[in-house]
């Protein structure tokens, strides 16, 4: 792609948005190249990028191009409607309306939420309204300068690879994003091609959320503090907790209102302890027993509880997932013998041990909740298995499949019920987690990331992954390599040279299986300019596991930093 040619095409367009034209004049050559050297791509979370002018940026024109491709995708499937939701980020509402204007111009009806809503509410609405696709305008927990266009199929799940490829092909057929046809919103309303969605869908969703509850034999007076981190979760999470009978829930008021700058946090990401700072300060004053934080589009949730020293500890995604899985399987006696837990390949193996205890199968998928949603749909159709729980290490959980994506509203309620259950038994969540470690082993995980932006960064990430793929590792962190899993070639290669096929979609991911139930995995992020490396170790002793993890992280990190 000739970035200068693309830049000139934009500069020569007379009717281009004035603010975007002004921004173009302020960019230096390196910034201009990054803005125009490629088109925004679909990754694990759809199309996501920085706001601004250019083919590699989120703006009204790249959104219109994506919306045009989506409308064609829906029509090719003989469909006629989509649902659109949006979060609290800059231009989210504008992009939502632009998507509806393009869809309407193509004869596809759009149901648009009249105000911001969480991602799981969009997934639910697609199914509830019988629509053929859905879009949520969000960049999840990315920095304020990002936004995104996340697409869902008629099942309420993110587009899996085969469907995403069909849509990408249709998007790429749009020759000029600056010339995509639109229709005025008012005209579309008159034609019945635009309807505004409001509280009726909310009420149906909230009723479904109450259906996940497993026990009333809990301490509902437990003190809870909730923060939506300036995002979309406030009304639905607080309403869900209230309906479930939790009487002692407080809000972090400074973070309750939507704010595209996320002004009280360095990052609106509940994976990071700093996101809990205000909740922790409030909790210390009130003696709160559970802190809950959701990311801006409310598909991820983090939990924090006080330790023995009174200081709050944020549970990581693997720990929360293990606790939820154990609680659900121990309490839900209605689950049949063919129950299955679904996790990603970079999620802790502790879940497999817990599931096995309760007679549940474990299925691994590639990273990205769309793969979990896809498997739920397959099992629902075949009857081969019954979904019991799904989760990933990055704080995403799904309790019940009326939503087909990770759902922080469900997870917040289940987290509160789980904590209240253990409180009545005299345990904190940390103490309950320790009991799981004693029973199953000390599974400890870690993750390192390397941020490399722009074209040079993308190319270096590819070189690093390839260097690990092409090097025949014998040991890592002092542990023998038992097998290498190359998801790009779909091969599992054992130390003795034998091979077997990996029955998962192809992906630029390499995972090394080590002795002592340990492993590490390299994966380019699908939503950020980052290379991620995940680690997992296990032993019967906490200190031994910590030592194994440190040795593994140190050696692998040295190897990837040595790549030019």
From TrEMBL:
Keywords: Carbohydrate metabolism, Glucose metabolism, Isomerase, Magnesium, Metal-binding, Phosphoprotein. PROSITE patterns: PGM_PMM. SUPFAM superfamilies: Phosphoglucomutase, C-terminal domain, Phosphoglucomutase, first 3 domains. Residues 41-175, 205-304, 316-434 form the Alpha-D-phosphohexomutase alpha/beta/alpha domain. Residues 493-542 form the Alpha-D-phosphohexomutase C-terminal domain. Belongs to the phosphohexose mutase family. This is Phosphoglucomutase.
């Amino acid at each position: 792609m000739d970035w200068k040619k693309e830049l000139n095409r934009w500069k020569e367009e007379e009717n281009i948005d004035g603010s975007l034209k002004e921004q173009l004049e302020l960019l230096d050559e390196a910034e201009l190249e990054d803005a125009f050297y490629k088109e925004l791509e679909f990754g694990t979370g759809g199309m996501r990028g920085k706001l601004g002018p250019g083919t590699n940026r989120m703006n009204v024109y790249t959104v219109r191009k994506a919306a045009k491709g989506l409308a064609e995708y829906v029509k090719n499937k003989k469909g006629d409607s989509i649902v659109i939701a949006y979060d609290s980020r800059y231009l989210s509402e504008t992009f939502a309306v632009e998507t509806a204007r393009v869809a309407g111009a193509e004869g596809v009806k759009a149901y648009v939420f009249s105000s911001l809503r969480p991602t799981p509410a969009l997934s639910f609405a697609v199914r509830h309204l019988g629509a053929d696709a859905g879009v949520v305008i969000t960049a999840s927990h990315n920095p304020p300068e990002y936004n995104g266009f996340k697409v869902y199929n008629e099942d309420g799940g993110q587009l899996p690879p085969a469907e995403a490829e069909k849509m990408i092909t249709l998007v790429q057929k749009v020759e000029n994003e600056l010339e995509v046809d639109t229709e005025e919103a008012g005209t579309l309303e008159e034609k019945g091609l635009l309807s505004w969605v409001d509280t009726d869908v909310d009420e149906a969703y909230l009723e479904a959320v109450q259906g996940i509850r497993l026990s009333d034999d809990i301490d509902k007076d437990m003190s809870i503090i909730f923060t939506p981190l300036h995002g979309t979760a406030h009304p639905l999470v607080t309403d869900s907790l209230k309906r479930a009978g939790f009487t002692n829930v407080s809000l972090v008021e400074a973070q309750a209102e939507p704010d595209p700058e996320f002004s009280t946090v360095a990052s609106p990401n509940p994976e990071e302890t700093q996101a809990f700072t205000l909740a922790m300060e409030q909790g210390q004053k009130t003696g709160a027993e559970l802190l809950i934080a959701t990311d801006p589009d409310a598909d991820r949730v983090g939990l924090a509880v006080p330790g023995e020293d009174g200081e709050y500890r944020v549970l990581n995604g693997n720990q929360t997932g293990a606790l939820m899985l154990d609680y659900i399987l121990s309490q839900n006696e209605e689950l049949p013998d063919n129950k299955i837990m679904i996790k990603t390949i970079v999620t802790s193996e502790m879940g497999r041990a817990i599931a096995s205890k309760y007679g549940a199968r474990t299925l691994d998928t590639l990273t990205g909740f769309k793969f979990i949603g896809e498997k739920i749909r397959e099992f629902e159709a075949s009857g081969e298995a019954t979904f019991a729980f799904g989760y990933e290490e990055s704080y995403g959980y799904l309790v019940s499949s009326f939503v087909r994506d990770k759902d922080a509203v469900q997870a917040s309620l289940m987290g509160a019920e789980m904590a209240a259950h253990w409180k009545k038994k005299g345990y904190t969540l940390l103490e309950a987690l320790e009991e799981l470690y004693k029973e199953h082993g000390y599974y400890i995980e870690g993750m390192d990331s390397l941020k490399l932006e722009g074209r040079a960064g993308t190319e270096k990430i590819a070189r690093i992954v390839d260097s690990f793929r092409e090097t025949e590792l014998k040991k890592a962190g002092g542990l023998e390599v038992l097998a290498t899993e190359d998801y790009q070639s779909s091969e599992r290669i054992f130390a003795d040279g034998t091979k077997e096929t990996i029955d998962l979609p192809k992906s630029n991911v390499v995972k090394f299986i080590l002795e002592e139930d340990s492993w590490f995995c390299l994966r380019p992020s699908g939503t950020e300019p980052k290379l991620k490396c995940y680690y997992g170790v296990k032993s019967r002793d906490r200190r031994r596991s910590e030592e194994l993890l440190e040795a593994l992280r140190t050696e692998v990190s040295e190897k990837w930093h040595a790549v030019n």
